[in-house]
Write a structure and sequence with these properties.
- The strands form 22 sheets. Strands 38, 40, 41, 43, 46, 48, 49, 51, 53, 55, 57 and 58 form a twelve-stranded mixed sheet that branches.
- The chain has 1189 residues and is mostly beta strands.
- It is built from four helices and 97 strands.
- The protein folds into six domains: 127 residues, Neuraminidase (6 Propeller); 125 residues, no CATH class; 88 residues, no CATH class; 192 residues, no CATH class; 102 residues, Sandwich (Immunoglobulin-like), CATH 2.60.40.10; 308 residues, Neuraminidase (6 Propeller).
- It is 3% helix and 43% strand.
- The protein is elongated, with a radius of gyration of 51 Å.
């Protein structure tokens, strides 16, 4: 279709270069013509009907010093004598509007012009004898082409044997003239030499031979379609620039229309002698180069320009009269201007001429020169003129030499218009001849109703009105769907009724758009709008609405881009591939993206949809990332950023279920680089902890690397590889810190209290202390001797002393939003260092507590009246065996202790001394039974109402009875299955209860019969579960105390058990075991040792060895691991409330004179093996190890 005349005023620009007189059709100024023969091709077979075949070949052009143009061409075909060719030379004196024949050169063909020192030269192939024996020859004219020299020998124009190949544009560079010969060689001479002499010229060495092995190492997009060693690269052009030197560029003719058109780049040395070619990098995709193309370098712009024959999508499947697909190398009906800054990355600038008849019309074999701001072009043209009876047989078969001018070529741009036709909107480009069809405008979109209105706003947005309901759809200038709008913007109007076309302006410079309806190779320019593949930092790649389902785009080379955009409801995946040789042995590229704009900040934007970037992404400079509402981006590879990232994320009506940005691995490589996040669209309904960024793999990021702002106050947290946000809120619900207790100088000297309050951002904490008689005050650096973490969530109190007993602590939680929150207070309990290793205790009727301590070797008492602790017998830290009074007596690791109901005497199991001792209320110590009684290591004792003392002898695993008269008998031994019994109690009915420590059970011995039965636990099985006695489990149980009767009569009693290995206090009642104090382990595992006052299982103990009961039912525990005496009272609900006794120290009376026994420092002589066994058991309990038999 010819150009619509209604658009001429708008669309014709000066660069079209038409002359109404000389070029009425726009097909070019006719310079030379030979009539088309009456020939057709059917099925690729030539059928001659009449006439001779004479065709135009080898167009050449040059501008003379006086401003005139000269052009030349040869003739070929069966109607010529190709052994004695003819070239014609033409001249124009009016800027190419009209031409006149100046000279016919016989025996000469394929001539290329250049001018030097006002002399016109023509270099080509010459046969002086008309016998087909050609030499490369140079001719010169000193009268602007009117007359020419005749080559005669090596000193006068005859240069070398052979042929030059088709015409090209010689280059003047580096004080030499350069021309390509054939495929891959350069011919050059110094301008200062005699150019007519063969000796002045240098021919470069050829490239390596095209062997099968060499071709197999080429990149697969080239070698797979090259055709093996018979493949063709030929008709090379030559270009030269200061940045890249001299380069020879042959076309590559592939054996498949599916191949990506490429050129090869051969780099010539400065002296013209050698040629370098690296197949790893010296192939470049270039649209339309399966045919000969023209090329030159423009020094003013610093860019290379080429004229090629691009195959439009409308022409890629042209069928000849015999239903055969026309080969792409023969489709030459479209000519495009292309440019590059480096010969590797090419941009299509404009389709400058096009004809709908792809079979018979062609402009081809271009040579051109830069003429100021214009290109002056010579074309070998196939076109039916008014003088032709027949069409050219094929586009290849040229009947014309035509001249074309492309004005202001450096600023040239496509001129497109839209046309409503066939129920859709198509895009066209105006050219010098017919308008080029570029396909459907709306990519990936079908209109619901026939379009009946077109409009474009100043920002480039295109609007299309549909007849169905007057729906208005908006598109970007590429044709990507933007959405539906209710009305046009102010000042924008639709084309009038009946108007079917709209001239539109182009997308922004450097904008590149994916146009394939499915996935494909990024590498292939045919997948991109206007064949412009994005591969430089000057360009922005957009993946828009062309796809109709999820698609994968494979990236096989690393590219640096200025921007990357996604806009599609269907998911794109940019997958990593590699550019390999066809034999798979060499890799020439691996997909990766670097964003680095020439000006401004590079950008990555997801405007619609959920997309995946599965290639490495590097951001070397500050970059902008944005993700629209209800969209997401997954970087399923590594992200490396060396400068800050500005990340804009929009929220939709509901918060996203998953993070809008997911990254496989992230590395920050720049000091001070931040990820600055700006959130919009957040509402008050946003859930706390909404995810923003998730990192699924490794990273080196911390919370400090993120800065977050939003339309509502939010806080952010980075934990578990996830950045999440929460709406800001006032501190609330401060949890009360737990009371803390310890014995001065014990338990590592450290207690902690923990702060926890709600609020966003997470509150900061300030701890305060209240000392008796004072007011609350902040803990500061002045308190650092014993306090740390005073402004953190965990307050640590180090080595508290008894004078700090009763201090209270609380914290203030604040976060800058609203009023601070103040917690309830916790109390610090500090017990005196009175009992370094309490092993047994008992209470008298007045409530005085007597404590046996195995490390201090003493019996101490805590008066119920004054709450004072004092030594009743023994001297602290002095072991011995002697009887005596008060500190004059000696003990060695005293253990169990009980009061005789008969005389009120205190009986002590003096373990290492293997004896039972008696202590009066006045501190007089006597030995009831000694080593002669056979005791091995008495650990615990019980006394019945008759005065019989029962001994749990741990080392030899026996239960003994010591009668009031001192007679010792064995009640039960290892034969009954006992193992290291360490606790014993007796009830009013005479039943004995034994903690069978080594077997982790509680056993009973019947009075009279002395029958042993299992009361609770499972022999040999340690654990910590409550429940029925048979399924309950213990771990090295120790001290026992009975309250009432368990095994006879009403059986309404309780047995309290110090479950030493579990750090628990247990109760056996009515056949059931329950834990009344201490922290249980998980799933029946070991209990958790610690030091904490509290209720029930919130309290903590550490390896308690003994337990006693007061008259009022309170329990007292020798909390051995904590070096403390603990009290367990029961509240109204029956819950055990654990507290720590904090008695003050009474004066210690002086030691009486030596009583004659072993005293301080004596130590009792050598320790027996039984003692060491007992100490192993004790140490195992002390350090929380379970002693097993």
């Amino acid at each position: 279709m010819k150009r619509n005349t209604a658009l001429i005023v708008f669309l014709l620009f000066s660069f079209f270069g038409r002359s109404a007189a000389a070029d009425p059709t726009g097909a070019g100024v006719q310079v030379s013509h030979t009539p088309s023969p009456d020939i057709v091709y059917v099925g690729g077979i030539k059928i001659k009907r009449s006439g001779q075949e004479i065709y135009v070949a080898d167009p050449a052009i040059e501008k003379l010093a006086n401003g005139d143009y000269v052009m030349a061409h040869s003739l070929f075909g069966a109607g010529t004598n190709e052994d004695s060719p003819v070239s014609k030379i033409f001249r124009s004196t009016d800027d190419g509007k009209t031409w006149a024949l100046m000279k016919q050169l016989n025996g000469f063909q394929r001539g290329s012009f250049f001018v030097h020192d006002n002399v016109l030269y023509l270099i080509g192939s010459y046969t002086p004898n008309g016998n087909g024996s050609f030499s490369v020859a140079i001719l010169k004219s000193t009268d602007n082409g009117a007359t020419w020299s005749t080559p005669t020998d090596a000193n006068n124009g005859m240069l070398i044997s052979g042929n030059t190949g088709t015409t090209k544009t010689p280059q003047i560079y580096n004080n030499r003239v350069w021309i390509s010969l054939g495929t891959d060689r350069a011919y050059s001479a110094a301008l200062s030499s005699d150019l007519m002499k063969a000796s002045s010229w240098t021919r470069s060495a050829p490239t390596a031979a095209k062997t099968e092995a060499a071709i197999a190492k080429w990149p697969a997009p080239v070698s797979l379609y090259f055709g093996g060693t018979a493949g063709v690269w030929s008709e090379a052009q030559i270009v030269a620039s200061p940045a890249h030197g001299v380069t020879v560029m042959p076309k590559i003719q592939f054996n498949s229309p599916d191949a990506v058109p490429h050129i090869a780049l051969f780099h010539i040395s400065a002296d013209g002698k050698t040629m370098a070619f690296d197949p790893a990098k010296d192939f470049a995709p270039l649209t339309g180069t399966q045919k000969k193309f023209g090329a030159t370098y423009d020094p003013d712009s610093g860019r290379y320009y080429a004229l090629t024959n691009t195959v439009l999508p409308a022409d890629k499947d042209v069928i000849d009269p015999n239903s055969q697909r026309v080969k792409h190398e023969l489709i030459r009906n479209t000519a495009t201007l292309i440019s590059s800054g480096d010969l590797y990355h090419w941009d299509v600038e404009k389709i400058f001429i096009h004809a709908r008849d792809a079979e018979h019309t062609a402009w081809q074999y271009f040579t051109f020169i830069v003429d100021g701001n214009d290109l002056a072009i010579a074309s070998r043209t196939a076109f039916k003129t008014a003088d032709d009876q027949y069409k050219p047989p094929r586009g290849h078969d040229s009947n014309l030499l035509t001249f074309h001018r492309l004005e202001n070529f450096r600023a040239i741009a496509p001129t497109h218009y839209l046309k409503i036709e066939g129920g859709t909107v198509n895009r066209y480009e105006t050219t010098h001849y017919e308008d080029a069809p570029l396909g459907r405008f709306a990519v990936g979109h079908a209109f619901a109703g026939t379009p009946n209105g077109l409009a474009q706003a100043a920002d480039g947005t295109v609007y299309v009105r549909e007849s169905s309901g007057g729906i208005i759809k908006s598109f970007d200038a590429h044709g990507n769907v933007l959405g539906q709008v209710p009305a046009l913007p102010a000042g924008v109007v639709f084309t009038g009724p009946g108007t079917e076309t709209l001239a539109i302006f182009q997308p922004p410079s450097g904008s590149r758009n994916w146009t394939s309806a499915a996935g494909g190779d990024w590498y292939d320019p045919r997948n991109w709008y206007y064949w412009n593949r994005p591969d430089t930092e000057l360009e922005a790649a957009t993946f828009g609405t062309s796809i109709t389902a999820a698609a994968t785009v494979t990236l096989v080379q690393p590219y640096t881009l200025g921007a990357l955009h996604f806009r599609s409801p269907h998911a794109y995946t940019i997958a990593q591939g590699s550019l390999k040789s066809s034999d798979g042995t060499a890799t020439y590229g691996i997909g990766a993206i670097t964003l680095k704009a020439v000006s401004g900040r590079p950008a990555l934007a997801v405007r619609q949809g959920r997309h995946t970037l599965a290639v490495p992404l590097t951001l070397p400079v500050e970059s902008d990332l944005s993700i629209a509402a209800d969209s997401a981006l997954t970087i399923d590879h590594t992200l490396v950023f060396q400068a800050s990232i500005n990340l804009d994320i929009a929220f939709g009506a509901t918060a996203p279920a998953s993070a809008p940005l997911t990254i496989k691995a992230a590395t920050k490589n720049g000091a001070g680089a931040l990820i600055r996040i700006n959130l919009t669209g957040i509402t008050a309904a946003m859930p706390a902890g909404t995810k923003i960024i998730t990192i699924t793999g490794g990273h080196n990021l911390a919370a400090a690397d993120f800065a977050v702002s939003a339309n509502l106050p939010v806080t952010h947290a980075f934990a578990n590889n996830t950045l999440s946000i929460t709406l800001a809120s006032t501190p609330a619900n401060p949890a009360a810190p737990s009371n803390a207790a310890m014995t001065e100088g014990h338990h590592a000297g450290v207690v902690t209290m923990t702060a926890s309050a709600q609020g966003s951002p997470a509150p900061a904490y300030q701890w305060q202390v209240l000392k008796p008689g004072g007011a609350w005050q902040n803990l500061t650096a002045a308190d650092a001797a014993r306090h740390s973490g005073m402004t953190t969530a965990v307050l640590t109190i180090t080595n508290p002393v008894f004078s700090m007993n009763g201090w209270q602590y609380r914290y203030i939680a604040s976060n800058g939003f609203g009023d601070p929150a103040i917690s309830a207070a916790a109390t610090l309990t500090v017990a005196p260092d009175a009992f370094p290793y309490p092993t047994g205790l008992v209470l008298d009727a007045s409530g005085t507590i007597y404590v046996a301590d195995a490390i201090s070797h003493t019996i101490q008492k805590i008066s119920s009246r004054h709450n004072e602790v004092s030594i009743l017998a023994g001297l602290s830290d002095q072991a011995g065996t002697g009887d005596g009074t008060g500190t004059g007596a000696r003990f060695d690791r005293p253990q169990g202790i009980k009061i005789s109901p008969r005389d009120g005497g205190i009986h002590v199991a003096d373990a290492t001394n293997k004896s039972i001792r008696r202590v009066t209320a006045a501190g007089v110590v006597t030995t009831l039974t000694g080593t002669s009684a056979g005791l091995a290591s008495p650990r615990a004792i019980a006394i019945d109402n008759d005065g019989n003392t029962y001994v749990a002898d741990a080392v030899d695993s026996r239960i003994r009875m010591v009668a009031p008269d001192g007679t010792v008998s064995v009640i039960a031994d290892a034969g009954a299955g006992f193992s290291a019994p360490s606790g014993i109690a007796v009830d009013a009915a005479g039943w004995l209860y034994v903690a069978d420590t080594g077997r982790h059970t509680i056993r009973a011995i019947a009075p009279g019969t002395r029958e042993v039965t299992l009361l609770a636990g499972a022999s040999g099985t340690a654990g910590g579960t409550d429940g029925p006695a048979s399924s309950a489990r213990f771990r090295s149980p120790g001290g026992l105390v009975v309250d009432g009767v368990l095994c006879s009569g009403a059986r309404d009693g309780s047995l309290y058990i110090a479950d030493t290995g579990n750090s628990l206090i247990r109760e056996l009642i009515s056949g059931t075991v329950r834990t009344i104090a201490g922290r249980l382990g998980t799933d029946g595992g070991a209990g958790v040792p610690g030091y904490r006052d509290g209720t029930g299982t919130a309290a903590m103990l550490d390896s308690p060895l003994d337990i006693a009961i007061a008259a009022n039912g309170d329990l007292y525990v020798a909390d051995t691991g904590n070096a403390a005496i603990r009290r367990i009272a029961f509240d109204d609900g029956g819950q055990a409330v654990v507290s720590t006794l904090t008695p003050s120290s009474a004066a210690v009376p002086p030691a009486p004179p030596d009583s004659g026994g072993e005293t301080a420092g004596g130590g009792g002589g050598a320790h027996s093996a039984c003692f060491f066994m007992m100490m192993i058991v004790a140490a195992a309990v002390r350090y929380r190890h379970v002693w097993r038999r």
